[in-house]
Amino acid sequence: xxAEKIVRPIAATDLVSDVLARSEALxxxxxxxxxVLDKLRNRAMRRVMARLVTVEQAAxxxxxxxxxxxRDLNAALSPGASAATAPGAQGCVASASGAGDGARAHxxxxxxxxxxxxxxxxxxREPFSKIMAAIATLPHGDVxxxxxxxxxxxxxxxxxxxxxxxxxxxxxxxxxxxxxxxEPEGESSAPAPAAAPAPEDREGAADDGTRWLxxxxxxxxxxxxxxxxxLETLRVGEQLVQINVRVxxxxxxxxxxxxxxxxxxxxxxxxxxxxxxxxxxx
Length: 282
Known about the structure:
The chain is α/β, with parallel strands linked by helices.
C-alpha cells in the first residue's frame, strides 16, 4: 500500500506570493474568506501586495480569523492528504489595526504631509521607495498621511523600529488613510536594539564602504522590506551585503527593477550573502 503523501502545510508566516505559487486556485480561498482580498485577482496589484504580505497579515487586513483561513488553504492545497497543523494557526484571530495593537490617534495640530500611492498600487508599481523617501524627509513634528488601497500592515513594524507610531482608517475597502509620525523620545514601542553582532554580521557601515544587514531570524516580509529601506540610503560607491539563510528569490527581480546589480554567495554553510550595488548606466 503506498505511503500517504505528507504535504508541508501553509503557515501563517508564509508570503501570499509563495502560497499562490503552490496553487493558483488558492486565490479563490482568500476571496471566499473576504471580498477585500479580491485584489489578489489583479495580477498587477499582486506583484506588489502578495510579495510583501504574509497570510497572517492578509487575514489582519481583511479582518478575518486566521485559523479558518489557514485550515481552508491547506484543505484546498491537498484534498484528502494529511497535513500537520500549520505553525501559528491555533487560537489566532487577526486583529484590525487600531483595535488592540497599540495604534493611536495622530497629533491633530501637526502639519500633515500628503502622499497618495493608490494609482501606483493599482498599476502594479511598488511604492516603497516613495514612502521611505517621504519618511526620510519628514520634518520633526510633522505627520505623513499615506493614501493606499489596502491597509499597509507590513509597514507598521518596519516604521515602528524607526520610532514611528501610526493610525489607520478605512474609508472604503479600497481606500485607506494611514498617518505616521515620530514618537517623542522615550515613548517608542519599538524593541530595543539587539547586542552588537560579530564583525561580518554587524548591521551598519564599514570603512571600506560596505554596509551589512543581517536579516536572519526575521519573519517575512521584514527581510525584504528592511533591505529596500536600507538601499534608500545607500550612497554612490557603497555596497550593501544582506546576510540571509536562503536566497531571497523575490528580492532579486526587485533589485533589477530599481537599477541595482547583485551577487549571491552561497559558499557558507550557515548563511547566504547577497552583495548589492548600484548598476552602472547602460
